[in-house]
Specification:
Blueprint (H helix, E strand, L loop, with lengths): L1 E4 L4 E5 L8 E6 L3 E7 L3 E6 L5 E5 L4 E3 L1 H8 L5 E3 L3 E5 L5 E5 L13 E2 L3 E3 L6 H6 L12 E2 L2 E2 L1 H11 L8 H4 L4 E3 L10 E5 L5 E7 L4 E5 L3 E6 L3 E4 L4 E11 L2
Antiparallel strand pairs: 1-4, 1-7, 2-3, 4-5, 5-6, 8-12, 9-10, 9-11, 13-14, 15-21, 16-17, 16-21, 17-18, 18-19, 19-20, 20-21
């Protein structure tokens, strides 16, 4: 088995070994992974954090040995950047921009230096909404995980990750985590609301705020009203998502 770490600010992870194939997620700086298969220009990886699998270009990853991988994986208090944009400095004095939620506890593995702000350990539930507001206005990008492009499930995953909690990559998978609440009135700020389509498939998720508001990704990260029916988009004057279940993760 081979192992790797992301030494760039962002790497696209694709469904197939082809630049034109769908981007299913992204690797952010410092994320580690297993290399499951290698081809001439591409390798298939499994991201350690959420077990998401896909293809990345060989030249965009740095290989590490098993000992380093296991050491990173056993770290119980990972460090994530808490500023919109930070920088790491390479040993040849090049500044590399890294984005909110990047893993900087692995800088030494990459011979980089970091002197910015970071978050570590599990935070209070009340911090979740404050973190979510950093992404407000970020454009929708399928497979994206950053303030410069993000999808619904990545938004909730990143907000929880920065605060010390693990969520899976897809909304349908996140919906299997935590405890279900019977009524929206039982929810607290920071709980997750899930929404299904006409086939009953969960395909959207957002973070509950106080006073019957929700922050979620709908073309951009935005704040809307929510009730027992679903999300009411005040700009359009209609319900845009049908509520399926609310989950308490923390």
């Amino acid at each position: 088995m081979q192992y790797g770490i992301c030494h760039l600010s962002i790497i696209s992870v694709r469904t197939n070994a082809d630049d034109a194939s769908e981007m299913i997620t992204q690797l952010l700086y410092g994320e580690h992974f297993k290399i499951l298969e290698r081809r001439k220009f591409w390798c298939r990886i499994r991201i350690a954090f959420d077990k998401c699998e896909g293809w990345v270009r060989n030249q965009q990853v740095t290989e590490i040995d098993e000992t380093s991988y296991l050491s990173i994986d056993k770290n119980l208090k990972p460090k994530y950047t808490s500023d919109m944009v930070s920088f790491v400095e390479s040993d040849d004095a090049i500044l590399i921009p890294i984005l909110l939620g990047s893993s900087i506890q692995n800088c030494e593995e990459l011979a980089h230096k970091f002197e910015g702000s970071f978050s570590t350990g599990k935070k209070e539930k009340s911090n979740l909404v404050q973190t979510a507001l950093f992404y407000l206005g970020a454009p929708f990008l399928w497979g994206g995980k950053t303030p410069f492009g993000i999808d619904a499930a990545a938004f909730t995953q990143m907000v929880y990750r920065i605060n010390g909690y693990k969520l899976l990559r897809k909304a349908s998978a996140q919906a299997l985590q935590g405890d279900a609440l019977s009524f929206i009135e039982e929810s607290e700020a920071g709980d997750l609301a899930f929404f299904d389509n006409s086939e009953g498939e969960i395909y959207h998720v957002g973070i509950i705020m106080e006073n019957n508001y929700i922050i979620h990704v709908d073309e951009k990260v935005r704040i809307d009203r929510i009730d027992h029916t679903g999300i009411f988009n005040t700009d359009l004057g209609i319900y845009t998502y049908k509520l399926r279940v609310i989950k308490k993760i923390i």
